[in-house]
Amino acid sequence: MAELKSKYDRFRQKANVIIYGTSTKAGRLFDLILLGLILLSVVLVMMETVAEFDLKYHSYLVLLEWIITGLFTIEYILRIITINKPWKYMSSFYGIIDLLAILPMYLSIFFMGTSILTVVRSLRLLRLFKILNHPQFTSQSLQLNQAIKASKGKIIVFIYFVLISTIIIGSIMYLVEGKESGFTSIPASIYWTIVTLTTVGYGDISPETPLGQFIASFVMILGYGIIAVPTGIVTAEIAKRTHDKVAIHKKPCTNCGTEDYPENANFCPHCGHSFDTK
Amino acid sequence: MAELKSKYDRFRQKANVIIYGTSTKAGRLFDLILLGLILLSVVLVMMETVAEFDLKYHSYLVLLEWIITGLFTIEYILRIITINKPWKYMSSFYGIIDLLAILPMYLSIFFMGTSILTVVRSLRLLRLFKILNHPQFTSQSLQLNQAIKASKGKIIVFIYFVLISTIIIGSIMYLVEGKESGFTSIPASIYWTIVTLTTVGYGDISPETPLGQFIASFVMILGYGIIAVPTGIVTAEIAKRTHDKVAIHKKPCTNCGTEDYPENANFCPHCGHSFDTK
Amino acid sequence: MAELKSKYDRFRQKANVIIYGTSTKAGRLFDLILLGLILLSVVLVMMETVAEFDLKYHSYLVLLEWIITGLFTIEYILRIITINKPWKYMSSFYGIIDLLAILPMYLSIFFMGTSILTVVRSLRLLRLFKILNHPQFTSQSLQLNQAIKASKGKIIVFIYFVLISTIIIGSIMYLVEGKESGFTSIPASIYWTIVTLTTVGYGDISPETPLGQFIASFVMILGYGIIAVPTGIVTAEIAKRTHDKVAIHKKPCTNCGTEDYPENANFCPHCGHSFDTK
Amino acid sequence: MAELKSKYDRFRQKANVIIYGTSTKAGRLFDLILLGLILLSVVLVMMETVAEFDLKYHSYLVLLEWIITGLFTIEYILRIITINKPWKYMSSFYGIIDLLAILPMYLSIFFMGTSILTVVRSLRLLRLFKILNHPQFTSQSLQLNQAIKASKGKIIVFIYFVLISTIIIGSIMYLVEGKESGFTSIPASIYWTIVTLTTVGYGDISPETPLGQFIASFVMILGYGIIAVPTGIVTAEIAKRTHDKVAIHKKPCTNCGTEDYPENANFCPHCGHSFDTK
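Output (structure tokens, whole complex):
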């Protein structure tokens, strides 16, 4: 009995390394297969929504869906079994998504139409970020991440301005254009304002009165100026980081190993070591 | 009588601190409630313009409108009573908006349809900028503000160029396309030019003759180059400020006066002076 | 007779200062009136193309057109008479535009419909650039001008790439989509490609087959990357100039007056003057 | 016989210099004529797809097509004959394109409709990049190339994020909007998401339910922030290169070795050394 327990423990440990780790060959293979299954499941859900395709191959699609759901269920159970703190995994972001990816299929036995909720499986694609940890990409995505985080404060202030502007412009356009041209309510006018300010411009609603077109022209030109701001904010942060990267090619301090010093430094700013080699 | 006067004076002073100030707890609470009421009033006006919603809940909406108008009226009177120079407030930007926010509702008793003018209430949202003075955001919004102000000169020159270009391109397109494809007049053609140059592209007017499409292609490609300019202007200003910010918060080295050292330096990299103040 | 000649010469000289100069009060007034007349004439031509407006006020518009044409004719004659080298003016860019601005009106007496060509008057707006020489704007517009000129080489290479790409993508989309969805010919497909790559997106032509939509998605995403390039080019040049501007606040060399030296210079790079004040 | 062989060898060598080289006058002339022919052939293929044009001039177009195909065939044979390693050329990118440019025309004798495949000729335009090697442009295009290559890592990470976002947003919009408003399947919804995120905005599919419009507004505003990223990445790289360029072309001061001096300096600003070489 104790032997069985120790056997099970060894299996748990081994499975844990394969499922959660990426350092062993088996672990990487598991990740690759999982990645393939996730992509396949997303493609399946997509195909099911294409009417012509679904008509022809409905039974095959459903079969494949169940096979993938089965595999995902096994994976989910293994993840719970082989980890030391199962609740922590189950209540984590990825744990919830993993559950949501299999739940709709089982619910569809009892309730009609819930199988469409399997689209939440696409969220499992986020797992790709964990799998794709090639050093080059991690450093690049880290830099981008930092730049976007550093821009957050300014972006919030900016979006705040934009939202108030859209309400005010939307209200004005509602008064000017009236119900005939699609500006049927203030929320619809605000929707039009956002479509215009972001230069998307569907054309499902567009001003028809000369005054409305004049104000719209004004909004577009001003809007382009306004919309330049987030680009400016993000660019400035990325540029700062791209610039800093140049300094990376310096030789580390021979005393403490840091590379974080001005280019014309005579002393290491972290340990006081003199750089004077004469 | 004198006692009543002094009582009133004390009330005025107290109310003033609450209404105009943000340093006391009661003052901040007043601002928060006011903020909530403004948001609610804006949502109400929006909802009233949505036909289906208005049909169902018209009487409720009107009742709520009158309650909010009443509260805003009380607030407006209090603001006048408790301030020392009421005329200065009443003729200020915010004072006028506060009046315009309540006036249409009272006018609607005598004139039909003026209640729609309550949309000017959305301008009261601008008050949010006064209320939201969390230090982080003020510094960020200050930086953005400075960058946009510094860009003003270049942006004006740029818009001036764009406006003249739109008139010239609009005139050419009017001659080329003629009245069949929606280019019914030069102002309409100019509207189309602005829609195209800003890459909004509604598609309500679009060239149909081969020559018109050729010129339009030319306008789009050139236009994209032109439109890159405001982004460039704003980005350059923001980048300058993002870069400068780093140096601002540092004290110069007490030994050699340099500010050119990493933020977490323990020694000055130029003279080796120790920053350790213990 | 000689007195008449000298009187005429004095008139010519005086008129020349008023018409071509901007330093005297009369000269500036002349420019302002001319500016007003040009704007008025452009507005008139625009109004004439608006059908409802033209129907009501046709005779007034024509009368005003003739008055302005008369004034522009007098101005044109005065410009020729009062200048020393009339041919140089007449064959200059502005000279030709000034002639083109009055010619169509006179031709309309003999040929029907040529009056519409008065739209070339909008080109006279370019004269505004001469009139608006407020120092602040000239410096700003100079900086912009330099940045755009410096970007020219890269922009040409970029547009060259884009044009070849549009031909290739356009050809592919023509093969894929076929004539039903508006991709009636390769030139039409190229027009669609430009509309898509510049993110204008009218929607007058849009892919309908799944494969066409897939390729279009690919074009949009790649296109956005491509289209980021001109913004990058212009921004980099403007940023360089905005940055350089900082250096302007340095003290000029006391010997030769230049401000064009590195910040930590010990000697003036133009005259060799030593900056060492000790 | 040996003489004939040596004559042929001399011809081969001469032809090789003309066809592959650009240093001789004949070589440049050959390139220019080839360039003209390629442009003409592309224009021809385009014209053939314009129905009205093709109806009128079909026989002329076909004749010209055959003449150009003949010339291209001669060129292709000459390229093979005159080069030492013909297989290397034939299996190279340009070699394959050169073959594909002539093949469809010959195939059209046996199979109907293959002549349309001559559109691949537009790929021959890429040869222009080889021909256009004016030093100014090569340096500019090199700089752009480097900037785009350096951005590659970040751009891939970014596109990866965008693709996953489009799948998730597309799935949500499919659930929210349903089949009535054009969101007929998840792939169609993803197509709409890409059209919206890139601010192209055709308007062939657009949300109609209030919730759909609300989510769309959210996508647009967030999307604009996201889409600022590639611009930021490319701008930062170009800015770095634009900045660096200044220093590249200068020789260091022969006295103190600095490169930090204005371009038209006569004296080194750091040591006062005279740059006057006379």
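Residues 245-249 of chain A have pLDDT under 50 and may be disordered.
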